[in-house]
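Progress against Task 2.4 (sequence-to-structure conversion) is shown through the following example record, which the project officer requested during the mid-term review.
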Amino acid sequence: MTYAATDRAPFTASAANVDYAALLLRVTMGLSFIAHAWLKYAIFTPAGTVQYFQSLGLPGPLAYVVMTAEFLGGIALILGLWTRWVALALIPILLGAVFAHSGNGFFFMNPNGGWEFPAFWAAALAVQSLIGGGAYALKR
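Structure tokens generated for the chain above:
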């Protein structure tokens, strides 16, 4: 199918499409970060999360840093506050999750979860940092 110079092909990249894609990406990742922080707080409990971090050879207090970063980072992503910097700052958390699940194999459906999902999520954060906050971001 050909298009005249004045026609727009469907699903072509445009500034508006990229802005809405960035919005969708940042809100879904923000909600996911808040859900993971809540999981560590309400289900695993802070004490249990500390124990898990220590079982990996990580300092226990790092668990509190991670839970706080996930929660506040999730809020910042949803609101579009300093999106590029927040996305970059959250990447080490996902790389830590890759480390935590590396012994379980690649697929996340493996017992205790594999490292596929956190690796993809880290890549999505890198994409978010490159494209910015997008539509309805409070701080562009």
